[in-house]
Amino acid sequence: MTLLSSWCYDGSLPESYVMPPETRPGDLIVPMEKSIPVIDLQRKDRKETIQQIMKAGQEFGFFQIINHGVSEDLMDETMNVAEEFHAMPVLDKERECAKDPNGSCKLYTSSYVYPREDVHLWRDAVIHPCRPLDQHIQFWPEKPNRYREVVGAYSVELWKLSCRILELICEGLGLSLNYFSNDLSQVPQIIINHYPPCPEPSLTLGLLKHRDLTIITILLQTQIKGLQVFKDGRWIGIEPLPHAFVVNIGSLLMFISNGKLNGAEHRVVTNSRDARTTVSFFVYPSDESIIEPAKALVNASNPAIYKAFKFADFINVSIINPDDEALKELIYNSTA
Ligand SMILES: O=C(O)CCC(=O)C(=O)O
Ligand SMILES: [Fe+2]
């Protein structure tokens, strides 16, 4: 396998990474002043916290959380292990990700569909399931040495944090607090993204404009900028805050909330100086889960914007056999 991190340091930007003008990042300096809300989860007033989350979820689809209860040491250790993983030689990374005969741990460059891409993305990634931990941890990398110990502890904490955030969102939406405690949130995955320094950051991207195909995503980043959110027709940079998490609403929660929460579009720009590593916690449903606007949010004056569909069918038309028309047909309720 050719990973970006194994060849990119001495090269110029190959043609296959040059994006068409309309998708290029263009301005690398984007405003931070209107950046996304920062929400303190330790505030005493639960109602206030919920209101802040709902407002941020509607306006930006993104917010940062501080005082979230995950230890700073664990966050730092997780980032260290993530950076060490991507710094290993390609053959080591391949070996460490090949422990599951069913391929649950995936190492790839650009996107899942590299061979089908017109233009490649400037990132490498590893993704694996993390729950229940004892069913998956034996297939995770054993190098760097502390990978399993640290990422295992991290995924347990992030699971708890995701449940807490989803409960606050349920309360904000007026859904029962356990709305997501069934199949809808039971298959989280850890993804470690790595964006090496890029020779031509203005011509390519680490990730194209997208919505996460998740319920929510919780992102750990460092002080190195790169993530941008699309709001009101322009890009806004997400300012790195030490030991904060960036939380975003995924498309599935946009469907379930019948559009009340915004699954915001975002992208990743690269830079020529620093490698950037991020760790995302993707909250996913099981393949068989039915995604649909919550019944409590739909009535005669708020008809369902979206149809009910199986998560696996959504993944199929979004990623496996991407087809825009089939996707629209699957998700939109034409009678609304
Ligand atoms: O690396 C980042 O800043 C964002 C990653 C992301 O958007 C994703 O993994 O879906
Ligand atoms: Fe994303």
From TrEMBL:
Residues 186-285 form the Fe2OG dioxygenase domain. Pfam families: 2OG-FeII_Oxy, DIOX_N. Keywords: Iron, Metal-binding, Oxidoreductase. SUPFAM superfamilies: Clavaminate synthase-like. GO terms for molecular function: metal ion binding; oxidoreductase activity. Belongs to the iron/ascorbate-dependent oxidoreductase family. This is RING/U-box superfamily protein. It comes from Hibiscus syriacus (Rose of Sharon).
